[in-house]
Specification:
Length: 743
């Protein structure tokens, strides 16, 4: 009871002190609570509260160490104190020291019952590992934190961890994985309906697309910029509609202003027609963000704002201002690598625009070294070639100037000779002519000597470039050879995979009136299908394994083998839900080595390995259909009406709900009804004029309009629709659709 009253008192003092931004008042208020009769453990809690709330690094270090000295064996206080010290080391740029402190905090926190503190320590450790460029371990920490936040139903922290995963993958240019995590953020925010959660999801989407715009080809840039602006507009709409003006909401709004600035600035570089309008819009939003962050004093975001101002000057063509802003930019240990990369890039481009090629070359070389690409000779060759082209232009200009001077001089001499012809004697004319000839010879010799030196320099540079091109050509040939060998292996893997799948005649024997559209994204597929017979029931299985291409192909072959084994053991009264239960146990046993336990003995796992699956058992004589789905649903068309056979929201594999059995749905159909089974690659396919997903709504419209047609016509019509939808858009996932007519 005493500890609870103490916690409430500290919370009240914290809110009172920091609302008025006076850390000293808060510290003094806490210290006034300490009397000579106060026991050491209570003092340690007071000191730990000061370390948590005080913004002064020295104060945090002092009271965190003091609380550990007097707390005795209280593991919770020691874990919190170590985490506060770790955070201070992180803000000072001492990332290795910060990592060690957080590792101490983690080891101690595992001995406590405070799962939220443990999850926060794991999350912050991931942030440090990201700063140390240890991306795989950072991602694992974020995933572990998400698992605990989800168990605790702490949605806000879960979303922040997903957002951090999305940023890590985006900056590492793992865009496909980043999109999956971004979709997770969107899905969680839609489930809760909380406006603040939606803000987090849309800022993640905006930041991912603005970064993709910086790294993509020109023909893709405008599409990603448009998505960035749409996500930022959604943030503005949520703020306006909910009238949310608290600190967290306004911070996310101003982050969206920075992303809008990036989008409009990049657009000004590539869209000449609306260049002035884009620059004005960019300046508008950076002014708003600048005002907010100067009021809050956020040093990290202020550094980003200062860099944005420098890029704005560059976009306007005021290169001297851009150079001054870049040179005055202060780099600290806490400066983000993303900001450093853009600062070096800006300095290289600004010096180049000002004609200071030597400085531009030095900054480009520094940027390449910072990005760890200093061994890529192609980068340096491009800069060298650019400088040589500028020097050649200078030499051509000098030669033209000398030619004009010679022509002017010759004209002047001719005029003077004409005038002197009638005024002076022939001797003076001869002497003058000799002098002119001598001067011309001397000048020509000087020019020829200078040209010889310059030509020799150019030849040396040309030889270096030719050598570099030879190295690049050799590397290209090796890459093409390796690529050819890999493609041959993958094509043979496709042959093996197709041999494992049922052929058309085998399917038609069981289902006389059916169609199958099987469209892998890559050469081998992560989708698979299987048909067989158990007593009076005819079984059809459609599955979507994690991933696609070679990883998905491996998992699909494993899935085909597993489903064959499971169905061979079924009795005549087969139940699809039981088949999925057996399949899940088979997968869990196969990947049992990929799990750990937390401090409470609960199993922690990754949902990355597994599959989504539909199983239908059909009795064509009685027209009874039994269905079960793992993250899959099937659809029935009957007399112009479409109904949904909804599967369970858990996959075949490890999941938080894995102890619950799968549900079997039974339904009797009529003659002429259609049963459709699909994988989610169809609904998720991007395309159309707006670059959106195909979605379930369009798929249901296809069923309604075509279900009464012959199955062969349905197959042809569906594949025409999906190819027209994709147009020039790349296929994003494997797609499978099977339709069965019940006769």
């Amino acid at each position: 009871m005493k500890s609870r009253i103490l916690a409430i008192l500290i919370t009240i003092l914290s809110a009172t002190a920091f609302t008025s931004s006076k850390a000293e008042n808060f510290r003094d208020s806490i210290l006034n609570l300490i009397t000579p009769q106060t026991d050491p453990l209570t003092k340690a809690r007071y000191y730990c509260a000061i370390a948590k709330e005080d913004p002064n690094p020295d104060t945090v270090k002092y009271y965190a160490n003091l609380s550990m000295e007097i707390c005795g064996g209280d593991t919770l206080i020691r874990a919190e104190a170590y985490s506060y010290l770790g955070y201070i080391a992180y803000t000072e740029g001492a990332w290795e020291q910060s990592l060690q402190l957080y590792q101490h905090a983690y080891a101690i926190a595992r001995l406590t019952s405070d799962s939220l503190l443990l999850a926060k320590i794991i999350f912050n450790t991931g942030c440090i590992l990201e700063s140390l460029n240890n991306i795989p371990e950072a991602m694992e920490n974020f995933k572990q934190a998400i698992s605990i936040f989800r168990k605790l139903k702490h949605t806000a922290w879960e979303l922040w961890a997903y957002r951090q995963l999305c940023q890590v993958c985006t900056k590492s240019k793992m865009f496909y994985i980043a999109e999956k995590y971004c979709q997770e953020v969107m899905e969680v925010s839609r489930t809760t309906g909380d406006p603040y959660h939606k803000l987090i999801s849309f800022i993640s989407l905006a930041q991912m697309n603005s970064f993709k715009a910086e790294t993509q080809q020109v023909d893709s840039i405008h599409r990603y910029l448009q998505r960035t602006l749409e996500a930022c507009d959604s943030i503005q709409h949520i703020i306006d509609s909910t009238q949310c003006d608290n600190f967290d909401c306004m911070t996310l709004l101003n982050e969206s202003y920075i992303e809008k600035f990036k989008a409009y600035t990049i657009n000004s570089f590539y869209g000449r027609r609306f260049r002035r309008q884009a620059i004005d819009s960019a300046e508008k939003y950076i002014l708003l963000a600048d005002k907010w962050y100067h009021n809050t004093g956020d040093s990290v975001q202020l550094a980003m704002v200062d860099l944005c101002w420098a890029w704005l000057y560059y976009a306007k063509g005021d290169y001297n201002k851009a150079l001054n802003a870049s040179k005055n930019f202060k780099i600290t240990n806490y400066t983000d690598k993303y900001i450093k990369e853009h600062l070096y890039n800006l300095l290289a481009n600004t010096y180049y625009q000002l004609g200071q090629y030597k400085e531009a070359y030095q900054w480009q070389k520094k940027l390449n070294k910072f990005l760890n690409i200093n061994t890529e000779e192609a980068k340096l060759a491009q800069v060298t070639e650019r400088l040589l082209c500028n020097r050649l232009d200078e030499f051509d200009s000098a030669e033209r100037m000398l030619k004009r001077e010679n022509e002017a001089l010759s004209s002047s001499v001719s005029n003077k000779q004409s005038q002197l012809l009638f005024a002076i004697i022939a001797l003076c004319l001869s002497i003058f002519a000799i002098i002119v000839v001598c001067i011309s010879v001397i000048r020509k010799r000087r020019v020829n000597k200078l040209l010889q030196i310059n030509n020799l320099t150019l030849l040396q540079k040309q030889e270096e470039i030719i050598q570099q091109q030879g190295i690049i050509t050799s590397q290209k040939e090796k890459v093409e050879q390796y690529n050819s060998m890999i493609l041959q292996s993958i094509r043979y893997a496709r042959h093996i995979q197709r041999m494992a799948l049922p052929d058309a005649e085998e399917v038609k024997t069981l289902f006389p009136d059916y169609f199958l559209s099987y469209m892998p994204k890559d050469i081998v597929s992560g989708d698979f299908y299987y048909v067989t017979r158990c007593g009076d029931f005819r079984i059809v299985v459609i599955a979507d394994c994690t991933g696609h291409g070679v990883p998905g192909g491996f998992l699909s072959m494993f899935g085909i083998s597993a489903i064959k084994e499971i169905l061979s053991r079924q009795n005549d009264n087969v139940m699809p839900g039981a088949v999925l239960d057996s399949m899940r146990e088979f997968i869990k046993d196969a990947f049992s080595g990929d799990s750990e336990t937390d401090e409470t003995g609960d199993e922690m796992f990754s949902t990355a390995d597994g599959m989504d699956m539909s199983v239908s058992a059909i009795n064509l004589e009685t027209r009874e259909v039994r269905y079960a789905g793992a993250y899959h649903s099937a659809y029935i068309w009957s007399n112009g009406t479409i109904s949904r056979l909804k599967g369970d929201r858990m996959p075949i594999g490890r999941h938080i709900k894995e102890d619950g059995p799968f549900t079997t749905i039974a339904q009797t159909l009529k003659a002429g009804d259609m049963l459709y089974m699909i994988t989610d690659g169809i609904q998720g396919q991007m395309g159309g004029l707006s670059g959106t997903k195909f979605m379930t709504k369009r798929l249901l419209q296809f069923f309604s309009e075509n279900a009464s047609n012959p199955v062969a016509d349905q197959k042809e019509r569906f594949e025409t629709i999906i190819h027209d939808w994709m147009q020039n858009t790349m296929q994003v996932d494997d797609m499978t659709l099977m339709g069965i007519r019940i006769n």
